[in-house]
Amino acid sequence: METKGTDEIWPTEEIDSIKDSLYKYLADFIPERWEYSKHAIMGPAGKLLSIISASKFGENVDSYVGYIANIHREQSKKHLSTGGIESLRISALKLIQLKQKSSERAFLKILNSVDYGVYYLKVKGIGERSEAKKTGGEKE
């Protein structure tokens, strides 16, 4: 049974930091096949959120990073850069820290916030690149 209080402070800064790190990681992810579902847009970043939620590897950050790097290698045309690995490591570490400090219910809300925040940033970036191509194409 849950023992932590419900008057927890919402960790806005940590959530924003995690969203930024996962968005930076996704710059390295170019799927084999382009699709526009949420699952496809989020790529392995969505998988990271679900396995941390399930505590698949406990508190072992390296195991989470390795697991996601393996999925990335299988699904992406672009290799995972050193910066991408570091962004994954930061995201996993901060998520684990938040999970330790939060109640189960609060942590699930935090994961939803991160999930849809990263999705929004990614869709926004796709839209901006699409607009840039259109305006760039009109100039020629």
Helix content: over 70%
Number of helices: 6
Mean pLDDT: 90
| Biggest sheet features | none
Provide the number of structural domains: 1
Multimerization status: single chain
Strand percent estimate: under 5%
Report the principal-axis shape. Answer: globular
Termini distance? 64 Å
Class by alpha and beta content: mainly alpha
Low-confidence stretches: none
- How many β strands by DSSP? 0
What gyration radius follows from the Cα positions, in whole Å? 16 Å
What is the H/E string? HHHHHH
Question: What's this entry about, in short?
Answer:
This protein has 140 residues and is mainly α.
Can you tag this structure with a few keywords?
single chain, 140 residues, mainly alpha, 6 helices
Give a description of the structure.
- The chain contains six helices and no strands.
- Helix 3 (44-53) packs antiparallel against helix 4 (61-75), helix 3 packs parallel to helix 5 (82-101) and helix 3 runs antiparallel to helix 6 (104-139).
- Helix content is 72%, strand content 0%.
- The mean pLDDT is 90.
- The longest helix is centred in the last third of the chain and has 36 residues, at 104-139.
- The protein is globular.
- With 140 residues, the chain is mainly alpha-helical.
- The chain has one domain.
